[in-house]
Here is the input.
Amino acid sequence: MNNRLLGVIDATTYHKGLDELTLHRSLAAVPFAGRYRLIDFILSNMVNSGIESVAIFPKYQYRSLMDHLGSGKNWDLDRKRDGLFFFPSPMIDSSNSGIGSFNHFVANIDYFYRSSQDYALIANCYTVCNIDFSPVLQRHIQSGCDITSIQQLNQPLEMYLVKKDLLIDMIQTRRQTGYTCISDIMADIHQPYTICHYEYKGEAVTIDSVQSYFQASMELLTPDVWRNLFLRDFPIYTKVKDEPPTRYLNGCEVKNSIVANGCQIEGKVENSIIARGVKVGKNTIVRNCVIMQKCEIQEGCVLDSVILDKDVKVEEGTYLTCTQSVPFVVKKGSIQGALMNS
Amino acid sequence: MANKKCVAMLLAGGKGSRLNSLTKELAKPAVPFGGKYRIIDFTLSNCTNSGIDTVGVLTQYQPLILNSYIGIGSAWDLDRRNGGVTVLPPYSESSEVKWYTGTASAIYQNINYLEQHNPEYVLILSGDHIYKMNYDLMLDYHISKGADATISVIEVPWHETNRFGIMNTSLDMRIEDFEEKPEQAKNNLASMGIYIFKWSVLNEFLQKDNQNKDSSHDFGKDIIPEMLKLNKKLYAYPFNGYWKDVGTVQSLWEANMDLLDENCELNLFDQDWRIYSVNPNHPPQYISPQAKVKQSLVNEGCTIEGEVIKSVLFQGVAIDKGSVIKESVVMPNTRIGKNVILEKVIVPSNIVIPDGTVIKERKETSEVLLITPESICHFA
Here is the structure.
């Protein structure tokens, strides 16, 4: 029954609060949990729920997103029939709208017409969760509602399930109705549709600012959160890299941390998320940090409450300490030297 | 289809019986190694890094896991339209099934495959060794020498020469004589089981060897001596670097421990010569607040709440509180309970070590112990 569901991921969102991490990449491609990108969660959820056709609508800086997704092979979406579709927005300047922008959909309306699936699931790209959509569809069909909105504790998670024909109708009549997206409909108390809510009980975090990004990263260190997110039978897929196992050298001290493959650790790491291929030098202390891919932290550094974007080099003897309430973001590819401290 | 310059034939049918229970349901090339890899990853990665894009993998013993692991070769970038990896199992011809009885007969039975690609040169490899080698440089050497066959050799300690096939060479490295496991060796250059042949010459000798009823159909025992007898041009190609036959439990353990040495010649972190493998999808490793990890290699999907010293942990290994793992190799998805002490052991895949199990250094022997699902209950 799940092949009756289309997956639609709206990757056009831009959050001003995440500027520092989204200058060079789309929000969907923001690295998270050491080896993933934000889109991996929703995309894997869809695949694990049996969805075989997924359309992604990106808009800003989507080079890294395309590079990450490739043919969709890592999500088993490189299919002859259905699979992964990529529909970049033709409208560069159009203003930011809510989730499920009809203006973006209309440019690729053929995808909706040609698909054989009866229902569509429209979701955002920045919610970190592990959710099975099959019971949502079941409930949607039983209830006979027009729109089922997935929510948690009465807060919408911005994932909507609608009949495909109704979605096409909404897209085609957008000028007459004035609704630019599904969220518009949800926000209008006079809207003509019947709406149901589906309460999701698992772990769900919305990433919309550096603050929430940092907080969500630190929460991964809680074993319960970790276990709920990375279920064995419902794995989160990502682009695989051929990194060797992580090497813990003599003199290293690692505590309460999540570490991806290909790292070489000689220093002290505590309460941190370390992504693939990171080097931590001798006598260096990394505490409460999120360190992204391929960063190199040389000897004798102290880092506290810092987010290092990809490819950052921290030179010998550098001190970068902040507070957890105001984490500091070091931009991708930059070099931090000891002399810059003063 | 364009002819290939060089096609590799990878012998992966080895039973590896000295690896005991590790190879009970697994061909030796598929045995896990280095926290993430299987032994065959090294040879396949060498092929792809050397620019060899056509590899026939000859399987025979316990091929299920090995075959599905190789798949269409995409992990090593060997899923090619023209060439790529092809698994070559023994097959039946008219009425009788022809098992691969020797290394040469295995190649002989796949002459069809080689004729299909019609290469100038054939590279014969074995899937049993851990090393990094650029076969392209060896091929250049083979061509520059105008050789009929080139055999890769490595210097071994003199006291170990009786374990290897030893090449006696002239000053320009031409092979004059070959001795299988000699008592009194005249040289210490051992064959690494890597051969490059001119395809036309190899074809001729394979046909002839197949007619010979007394032959054991082996490269080292039959083909090479026969070529030497007929004065063919055979050269030794000296290799410097890490090379290990992980044929025994002890050597498998040693090779894993070698990786923990910071000065080890086998660098897994070299971006220019990556070792590719099938990447299982696991979350990053979690190191708990109580955990201690030192001088170890740890793969994705591990959860460490105990102490890990000088050990190699494969994907999906869980080590519970109060446990100490020292100088050991723990294979994929094995769970180690609470307050377990393991020293100098190899723990196989997918088993559970019960709480309180203690296996410490055995006084009577310095040998490494291979745990089996059956033996573990004696220690618990």
